[in-house]
Amino acid sequence: EVQLVESGGGLVQPGGSLRLSCGASGFTFDSYWMHWVRQTPGMGLVWVSRVKTDGSIALYADSVKGRFTISRDNAKDTLYLQMNSLRAEDTAVYYCARETALTGYYLDLWGRGTLVTVSS
Amino acid sequence: EIVMTQSPATLSVSPGERATLSCRASQSVSSSLAWYQQKPGQAPRLLIYDASARPTGIPARFSGSGSGTEFTLTISSLQSDDFAVYYCQQHNNWPLTFGGGTKVETK
User: Fold this and answer.
1) Within an 8 Å CB–CB cutoff, is residue B101 touching chain A?
2) Beta bridge partners of residue B104, listed in sequence order
3) Are the beta carbons of B34 and A107 separated by less than 8 Å?
4) Tens of pLDDT along chain A (120 residues)?
5) What is the pLDDT of residue A79?
6) What is the DSSP-derived secondary structure letter of residue B96?
7) Please, what sign has the CA dihedral across residues B26, B32, B37, B41?
8) Long-range contacts made by residues B56-65, C-beta under 8 angstroms, separation at least 24?
9) N or C: which end of chain B has fewer CB within 10 A?
10) pLDDT at site A48
11) B28: distance to nearest CA of chain A, Å?
12) How far is CA A73 from CA A22, A30, A105, B13, in A?
């Protein structure tokens, strides 16, 4: 089955760190750019980060630049998001998503998400 | 950053009726517009890309139109499985940005 499964979410104190993982199955993981997108009740869906097929290029939203690091292990078909210096406003459900193999930057496969709560 | 605005926030529709959802971009995104469906506790699902193209497996009752700054998602005859939240997303400029969503609920 073609799917993405996130894990690693939880409760963390402000200033703390967390690493999210996203396991891919059913498709050739190393052929696709991958993304993280987060969702909060107040802000809706917000794009967070994007990484190239081989991990050599990464893009970030301004709100997380310098604090979050996206990476991937193609041998393990796994995407990661290392989140440092966490703030209350980082509280959200985090989704990993696959970018289309066609032309364009839309996301054709999403995971179910993992909840990150930043609170003391 | 391109701001995407969806309307209405909530749409009350009876099964079998047509639903029309709108999405406006703060500047032109050409035809680089996608629509997603999301049900509670589930992953978003791609419905439409490039404003009007349907991925394999998406029913023909879902159609998209528009270009530039004004876009529409039409569900021709609403089925019970279609009650959900719908988001638009521009994929023309970085950062990718999403609309705030339209919730389609049973009338």
Assistant:
1) yes
2) B11
3) yes
4) 999 999 999 999 999 999 999 999 999 999 999 999 999 977 789 999 999 999 999 999 999 999 999 999 999 999 999 999 999 999 999 999 999 988 888 999 999 999 999 999
5) 98
6) P
7) negative
8) B62/B35, B64/B33, B64/B35
9) C
10) 98
11) 15
12) 10, 9, 22, 45
Which residues of A fall within a CB distance of 8 Å from B44? 45, 95, 97, 107, 110
The secondary structure of chain A as a DSSP string is --EEEEE--EEE-TT--EEEEEEEESS-GGGS-EEEEEEETTTEEEEEEEE-TTS--EEE-TTTTTTEEEEEETTTTEEEEEE-S--GGG-EEEEEEEEPSSSS--EEEE---EEEEE--
Residue A50 backbone phi and psi in degrees, to 5: -145, 140
